[in-house]
Amino acid sequence: MKTVVWFGCVLGALSAAAKVIVTHPGQTVTLECGARAYSHVLVWNYGSNMIISTNGKSGQQRKGSHHIVERSRMKSTSLVISRVKGEDAGKFTCKADSNPYEHTLLVVSVSASPSGVLQLGSEATLQCNVAGLDPGSTVQWTRPDGQHTGSQTVQLKPVARSDAGTWNCTFSHDKKYSESLNIKVKEPAPTPPPLPSLITNANPKTTCIDCAIDPLSDALLLGLKWWVWVAIGVGCLVVVLLLVLVIVLCKRIRRKKAKLHKMKNSRQPLKSKQYCQCNRPTAAAKPQQGRRREKPSAPPLQPLLME
Questions:
Q1: Residues 194, 195, 199, 203: is their CA dihedral positive or negative?
Q2: What number of CA atoms fall less than 13 Å from residue 221's CA on the CB side?
Q3: How deeply is 184 buried, as exposed, middle or buried, from its count of CB atoms within 10 A (0-12, 13-18, 19+)?
Q4: Are strands 29-31 and 99-113 parallel, antiparallel or unpaired?
Q5: 61-78 pLDDT, tens per residue?
Q6: Is the Cβ–Cβ distance between 44 and 53 less than 8 Å?
Q7: E strand or H helix at 126, and its extent?
Q8: Band of the pLDDT at 99, cuts 50, 70, 90?
Q9: Quick check: 26 and 88 in contact, CB under 8 A?
Q10: Comparing C-alpha atoms, which of 137, 92, 128, 88 is closest to residue 108?
Q11: Phi, psi dihedrals of residue 207, rounded to the nearest 5°
């Protein structure tokens, strides 16, 4: 009778200490052992595989070879797991001096494909994955209007305005849990009107079947008719000719100015110190004072004319 009572107490302690931890991929989770202190050895196991153990007297730690070991560390009596993956979900057991405390880790991920804002009338898929559940557990979506889909995968074909809102993924493990996903729906961008063709093959105003159709009558190039482009071309040609004429006239005027300037420079103007010199005998030298003037020589005798 005492054995039965003791066994019942142990089962009650285990069920009270067991916890369910819900997390998401990529997060860091802390699993509390349930025992605040221990005297000899504290061991954390994942299923039947040892993760880490520590000696209470020496403080020496020993790690196992499971894939979760490299992302796990012990903090006091708790186990800290970083960068959680879906394959980390399952049963964890903490043994403090041979007293076991069980924990269940559930890894939940909800997603929509394509992600982000959904286009009205397009197709999308909602997915809810819960790793670590017992076999036979139910996972289902609840629509924004409260209706249950009964499946963990929902196909939206096509996306409607009523699909916008909060979707809840519900599942149970001893009790019910829920993860939400907000869906936004927007109108597709309006389609721009088609651009007019450059050349139309038919004139809607023409009713004559045998009449010849001028393909250039309604031709459009960059939104303008052909005669507009012709007028623009003629105007540009006139402007170019005027520019050429102005340049030629400017060059001719410059040449004339240069020629006149050269002719002016070639003429030598009369200087004030230059006079006309005539061939005449030099003036007699002025007699010196104190000397007697010499009488001028007599003129030559003229022959007498005979009567």
A1: positive
A2: 10
A3: exposed
A4: unpaired
A5: 888 888 899 999 988 888
A6: yes
A7: strand 124-131
A8: confident
A9: no
A10: 128
A11: -110, -10
Weakest mean pLDDT among 102-106, 140-144, 187-191:
187-191
Rounded distance, CA 17 to CA 103, Å? 8
User: CA–CA separation, 240 vs 62, rounded Å?
Assistant: 93
Cα separation values, 272 from 105, 255, 265, Å: 124, 33, 19
Radius of gyration of the chain (CA): 59
User: Which position has the higher pLDDT, 102 or 35?
Assistant: 102
Instruction: Tell me, yes or no, if the pTM score tops 0.70.
Output: no
Q: How far apart are the first and last CA of the chain?
A: 218
Q: CA-CA distances (angstroms) from residue 167 to 122, 128, 164, 269?
A: 18, 10, 9, 110
Q: What are phi and psi of 291, to 5 degrees?
A: -110, 150
Please state, in angstroms and rounded to a whole number, the distance separating the CA atoms of residues 302 and 307.
Answer: 15
Q: Tokens at residue 210, please?
A: 């045998």
Of 142, 139, 122, residue with least CA distance to 184: 122
Q: What are the C-alpha distances in Å from 205 to residues 111, 115, 209, 214, 227? A: 58, 52, 11, 13, 20
Distance of alpha carbon 201 from alpha carbon 210, whole angstroms:
14
User: 140, 147 in Cβ contact below 8 A?
Assistant: no
Do residues 53 and 93 lie in contact, with contact meaning Cβ atoms separated by under 8 Å? Answer: no
In this structure, are residues 113 and 125 in contact, taking their beta carbons and an 8 Å threshold? yes
List beta partners, residue 186: 119
Place of tokens 């170019």: 240
Give yes or no for a cis peptide into 114 (omega within 30° of 0). yes
Question: Averaged over 85-95, what is the pLDDT?
Answer: 92
**Phi, psi (degrees; rounded to nearest 5) at 154:** -125, 130
Tokens of 209: 């079947």
Q: How many residues are present in the chain?
A: 307
